[in-house]
Design brief:
D-Maltodextrin-Binding Protein, domain 2; Arc Repressor Mutant, subunit A; DNA-binding; transcription regulation; 41% helix; 319 residues; five-stranded mixed sheet; 3 domains
Length: 319
């Protein structure tokens, strides 16, 4: 027999979500500022309502049953939406909302002013946290630690970072397409030479590790031709590579996305950008679709929907 929702104390669902989160009656009670006995009584009511034990005791704490586990994501979404609804008064936007963004750096440094201003205008007193996009960021989106990611993928057909290789439970939307460029110091001897692939490969390169990989689409293109780059230095980020490339006393240069020109104008004005000297077909394989990425469970989440539309309005390009 189907039970009426009107007969269920919705506060019990908050208790259930906290027990799922903490896997402990005592810890849930501490968060709720009530006694463990009160939480135990609430759990008994929940067990009766759902006709399921919901949790079993183990040496590691309470382990959720299959039914309880199946409700965890839905409860989290319901409580988040509920908190936004009850925080509204008249035309006020909800306050105190948290935004966790996983953004490739230095793109995050370029975005931070205009994006945070837009968020704070719509969500007063909101808390914003930028996470550097890295190898574990997809897992962070799955766990709910990151609301939405914004990063470059790859177009080369053999790349492991193709958009079609993202997990089925991840949704995405391409906002703009970029190309990598070569960044060299403005007094570098290469600027006095004919700019072609031979010249490009004759100088030492500063490489960047991206998502735990030291090779990328350009290396695949060169392998097809039986060529390789002369990598003399490998750095952990584009910022580090650009910082070193500008320093005098060496002949190394680096590659980084085109958007980094805006970053360099402010912090590395002596760097000059050149195209990677390959033909049009190979340039096509180097294209970087900059993409926002989120979990499918957040498709209808009001905060994530607003954030997606905001990112699209700020950074999206007409197709």
């Amino acid at each position: 027999m189907k039970k009426s929702l009107a007969r269920l104390d919705l506060n019990l669902l908050l208790t259930l979500q906290l027990i799922l989160q903490e896997q402990s009656v005592t810890k849930a009670a501490k968060i709720l500022n009530v006694t463990p006995s009160t939480v135990s009584k609430s759990l008994a009511k929940l067990r009766d309502w759902f006709d399921d034990p919901l949790f079993v005791n183990t040496p590691q704490g309470l382990k959720p049953t299959t039914l309880a586990s199946s409700m965890e994501e839905s409860l989290s979404d319901w409580l988040q939406i509920g908190s936004q609804i009850v925080s509204r008064r008249g035309d006020e936007a909800p306050s105190g909302v948290r935004f966790n963004l996983g953004v490739e750096s230095p793109l995050s440094l370029i975005m931070v002013d205009e994006l945070t201003s837009r968020i704070h205008r719509t969500y007063p007193d909101s808390k914003i946290k930028f996470h550097n996009w890295d190898y574990d960021s997809i897992d962070a989106i799955v766990r709910g630690d990151v609301d939405i990611g914004f990063t470059g993928r790859e177009s080369h057909p053999r790349s492991k970072e193709l958009l079609e290789l993202l997990p089925y439970f991840i949704n995405f939307d391409v906002l703009f397409t970029d190309l990598p460029l070569v960044y060299v110091r403005d007094d570098h001897p290469v600027l006095k030479q004919e700019w072609n692939l031979e010249t490009f490969l004759s100088y030492p390169h500063i490489n960047v590790v991206w998502e735990k990989s030291e090779s990328w689409a350009l290396d695949e293109i060169l392998i097809e031709q039986g060529r390789t780059r002369n990598v003399n230095l490998t750095m952990a980020s584009f910022e580090q590579a650009l910082f070193v490339a500008e320093k005098p006393g060496h002949e190394m240069f680096t590659t980084a996305p085109r958007y980094c020109q805006r970053y360099c104008q402010q912090l590395h004005p002596r760097l000059v950008a050149l195209p990677i000297p390959v033909d049009d077909d190979q340039q096509e394989k180097l294209k970087i679709p900059f993409t926002m990425i989120w979990h499918k469970r957040n498709n209808q989440n009001p905060k994530i929907k607003w954030l997606r539309e905001t990112l699209k309005s700020l950074y999206g390009k007409p197709q």
